[in-house]
Amino acid sequence: MAASRMVIENCAIATVDAHDTEYTSGHVVVADNRIESVGAGRAPAALERVVRRIDGTGHLLTPGLVNTHHHFYQWITRGLATDHNLFDWLVALYPIWARIDEPMVRAAARGSLAMMARGGVTTAMDHHYVYPRGTGDLSGAIIGAAAETGVRFTLARGSMDRGASDGGLPPDFAVESLDSALAATEETVDRHHDPAFDAMTQIAVAPCSPFSVSTELLSQGAELARRKGVRLHTHGSETVEEEQFCKELFGMGPTDYFESTGWLGSDVWMAHCVHMNDSDIAAFARTGTGVAHCPSSNARLAAGIARVPEMLAAGVPVGLGVDGTASNESGELHTELRNALLINRLGARRESALNARQALRLGTYGGAQVLGRAAQIGSIEPGKLADLVLWKLDTLAHASIADPVVALVFGAAAPVTLSLVNGATVVEDSRLTTVDEDAVARETRSEARRLARIAAEG
Description:
The protein is an alpha/beta fold. It has 14 helices and 17 strands.
């Protein structure tokens, strides 16, 4: 069957391709779920089977945003422990998180996904690692919520096997055994991972962090991922306390510890990576290990400022992450473009540490690299999947900023006029087309209250 086409024209375009090609007024033609062409001026008038033609005057078209780190379940524990560092924050919240169940996780996933999608995210991921016993199919609930919302999705199937009695932070009843964690992770890969070019759901193997999992879970998890041909994800070098923990327990810093367990490589990405010295950055660059930079969460928990400019200069793949909404209550990725740029400029003589186009690249192509999908998404190029966002820049908020990329990154959050995932409309005129936002808000509010009641009862 011949492809149907959608045309978006008369808009500024930032392709984020290898040459940072931009058009002050250009067009993109989408054929089914692929980008067919991109160029200057209007699309050819004689194109056949055009089912929709969109006038993008006053807009900027970019690749869809790619979120590389999140914890959806935290949507229903927002606004708690607001003045804590990471370890104290975890100690305060783990007893609450340990009481989540399938309806709560489904509601939290729907809320997290809806908030991201309406703000320009077309590819999301969730690092879910809390699996209390007897609470239902949590992974299935998350994957179902992503399918309902219509975004491309990676579930990083997390795990913890180091409970409080073994020196970890989570309560013992919230962790899995080594064997059950590995078995459940493998089952999730077998049931849900799609290796296809246009896959909507992929799975990664993702033990939580050095201080909540055993060395055996890390090393055997890496073996499992490589046997199954999927990616690996965890938290790394987030705080000074983590570095001290690794040195005391393992006799080495986090990066050396990860390398000793098979956790450096081009199929690995780690969240945060705030406390990285020159040799750590060199090891990531040498092995192609990726980083999910989460500037708002790092600031919220006073973790520090990741050395993103140095990582980029060394050739480390870097994307952006919302992180869980218990440490980034906005739950939006497009604000991370601005925060990444501003936070990395803090300090003397750092006024050009990151620029607007580098920030946009972090949120699009960089994220695609980190998730192992740069051949399919992350830039506007013929043959790639039609994951696109049309940002409205002709309102008062951006009216006097001539450069549209600067307007998007430096300016106020821009409304999303259109968001396409796989060529299908997910957002139109700043509203989700796939789910009822108001119903999602009611559901998440109800489940947050239920969790608070259960946690209070102990």
